Write a sequence for this structure.
C-alpha cells in the first residue's frame, strides 16, 4: 500500500489557522484540561502551540515523517500506547475521515479509554451534511483528498460518540 503521508503531503496541508488554535485553547482552559493528546498530530503545530500556552500536550501519528521530523509518538489512532484515564482532553483535527468506519469506531473507543472520567474529546472533520457538498459536487473540498475514506454528518458522529 502506498504511503500517502509523506513530507510533501504534510507540507501541502501544513496549516493551523490561528483562530482554530486559539478556540481550542479557550475550550481546553474552560474545561480545566492540562494533559492533552493530539491524535494524528502531523507536523505538530497544534502540539507546539498548546505547549507554548502552558498545556502538557503530546502528539501521536502513524506517519513515519511525523515521528522522525516532527517528534510525534508513533502510534495508530486505533491503538493508543497510553494507560487508561491519562488525558484531560483528546484532540483529533482532520483525522477521523482518514479511517474506515470500523477504525473510526476503534479510535473513539481508544480515545474514551485514555480520557479521564470527565475528559473532553474535540474532533474536526469535513461535514458531509453541508450544503456546500451539494453545490460543489465532486469539487467539494472533502473529496479533494484521496486519503479521505469515511465522511460524517454531525448526527452520525454524535451517534458514534454516544456509544463511548
Amino acid at each position: 500500500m502506498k504511503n500517502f503521508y509523506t513530507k510533501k503531503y504534510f507540507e501541502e496541508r501544513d496549516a493551523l489557522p490561528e483562530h482554530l488554535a486559539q478556540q481550542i485553547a479557550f475550550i481546553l482552559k474552560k474545561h480545566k484540561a492540562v494533559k492533552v493528546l493530539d491524535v494524528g498530530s502531523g507536523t505538530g503545530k497544534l502540539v507546539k502551540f498548546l505547549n507554548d500556552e502552558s498545556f502538557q500536550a503530546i502528539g501521536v501519528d502513524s506517519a513515519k515523517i511525523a515521528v522522525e521530523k516532527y517528534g510525534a509518538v508513533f502510534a495508530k489512532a486505533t491503538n493508543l500506547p497510553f494507560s487508561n484515564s491519562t488525558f484531560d482532553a483528546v484532540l483529533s483535527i482532520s483525522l477521523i475521515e482518514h479511517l474506515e468506519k470500523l477504525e473510526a469506531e476503534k479510535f473513539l473507543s481508544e480515545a474514551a479509554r485514555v480520557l479521564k472520567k470527565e475528559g473532553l474529546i474535540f474532533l474536526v472533520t469535513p461535514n458531509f451534511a453541508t450544503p456546500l457538498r451539494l453545490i460543489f459536487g465532486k469539487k467539494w473540498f472533502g473529496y479533494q483528498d484521496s486519503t479521505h475514506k469515511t465522511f460524517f454528518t454531525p448526527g452520525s458522529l454524535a451517534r458514534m460518540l454516544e456509544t463511548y
